[in-house]
Amino acid sequence: MIQKVIPILMLVAIAATASCSAKKNKLESPSSPVIAVMDTTMYNALGDSIYYIIRAPKKVEISCLPSQSDSLKRAINKKVSSKELEIMKFIVTNPKNYMTNTTVYGVFMPQFQAVYTQKKAKIILKYDFGLRKWGIFDADDKQIAMFDLASDNMLRFACKMFPDNDFFHNLLLTRES
């Protein structure tokens, strides 16, 4: 009789330890996407209001800015399509772009800018590819934050969007050689 009870007790013990439960494991939660890590860095660096304008803009317009020494050229403006906007979001949300702001000995003179609008809010991202810096400015052109460019991805994007701009193409060629 004991020989029949022992296997039954062993089966009950194994079933109790290997049984399923309805409680979900916190680590397997589908509500925490991988992108949250990238967003956290950006969110902490900018704050919620600027973060949400960049993440979900109503409209984005980019501009190729003339150099300050060239008084004849004007800024060239383009609206960004939804496909190109996703590329811009990918570049702008790179967490490495929010890590450092090294002091450089030069004047910030942007050659490229992106104006993000959402309802009545407006911010401007300005890029100085020569200094490898980028800044966030409000609607009154006051600097909110300044960071180092972690890569040349926005320069590549500017080359794609403004194929006639020799400065962008020559600068990219010198960096990739």
Shape: elongated
Q: What is the strand arrangement across the widest sheet?
A: 2-1-3-4-5-6
Overall mean pLDDT stands at: 81
Beta-strand percentage range: 15-25%
Uncertain regions spanning at least 5 consecutive residues: 32-38
> Distance between the terminal alpha carbons, to the nearest Å?
84 Å
Q: What's the helical proportion of residues?
A: 25-40%
Question: Care to describe what's here?
Answer:
This protein is of the alpha+beta class and 177 residues long. It has six helices and six strands. It has helices at 2-17, 35-46, 48-55, 82-92, 153-161, 166-176, and strands spanning 59-64, 76-79, 112-118, 121-128, 133-138, 143-148. A six-stranded antiparallel sheet has the order 2-1-3-4-5-6. The protein is elongated and about 100 Å long.
Which short descriptors sum up this protein?
single chain, 177 residues, alpha+beta, 6-stranded antiparallel β-sheet, 6 helices, 38% helix, elongated
In short:
The chain is an alpha+beta fold and 177 residues long.
